[in-house]
Amino acid sequence: MNALTCWQTIAARIVPGHQVASGLNGNPRFPGGTLSMQTPFFRALGFDLGKYHGGTVNISIAPLRYCVIKAPTTFRQVKWHPTEPAEDFSFFDVQLIRPDSPPIAGKIYFPHPDTKPAHFQQPDVLELLLPFVKDLKYGDEIKLSVPTDQMSFEPAD
């Protein structure tokens, strides 16, 4: 990341997700979760998810919505599942900011909606890949910081 990167910080809240990435929903099509199934494919492409927890943290940025500008990392047509269609994925830089603790660096995990077969997110929800963070819970008010050249935020219509 460039030392001159400008970051924007917005208020956000931790919300429940589909629990498909972590595998906690028990869907037999995704044993161990989609992230554990995708990890070897991303690693083969030079992108290692090993430093992140094996699930995503879902963040609502309502009343805002996000607008993709340019992801620093994008993979097209990743065929990670034997029967599901190939998908496009992008990853954006992010920092989760909580009161009384240093920022936690991670990635926004963004399966492209136009190639994703199911489990769509609301337009105000982002999925974060982070190292394991103790004491996160649904409803926590946090701040999210993202480089201005990667994503922007605007009021939802």
Main pleated sheet: 6 strands, antiparallel, barrel
Structure class: mainly beta
Helix content: under 10%
- Which of globular, elongated, flat, extended, rod-shaped describes the shape? globular
Task: Write out the strand line-up for the largest beta sheet, numbering strands in chain order.
Answer: 1-2-7-6-5-8
Cα end-to-end separation: 32 Å
Order of helices and strands: EHEEEEEEEE
- Mean pLDDT metric: 88
Radius of gyration: 15 Å
Second rung of CATH, namely the architecture: Beta Barrel
Q: What's the helix count?
A: 1
Output the CATH class name: Mainly Beta
Structure notes:
Helices cover 7% and strands 38% of the residues. Strand 5 and strand 6 (104-111) form a beta hairpin. The radius of gyration is 15 Å and the shape is globular. The protein has 157 residues and is mainly β. It has one domain (7-18, 49-155): Beta Barrel (Elongation Factor Tu (Ef-tu), domain 3), CATH 2.40.30.30. The longest helix is centred in the first third of the chain and has 11 residues, at 34-44. The strands form 2 sheets. The chain has a 6-stranded antiparallel β-barrel with strand order 1-2-7-6-5-8. It has a two-stranded antiparallel sheet with strand order 3-9. It is built from 1 helix and 9 strands. The mean pLDDT is 88. The chain has one helix at 34-44; strands spanning 7-15, 57-60, 64-68, 73-78, 87-97, 104-111, 125-129, 141-147, 151-155.
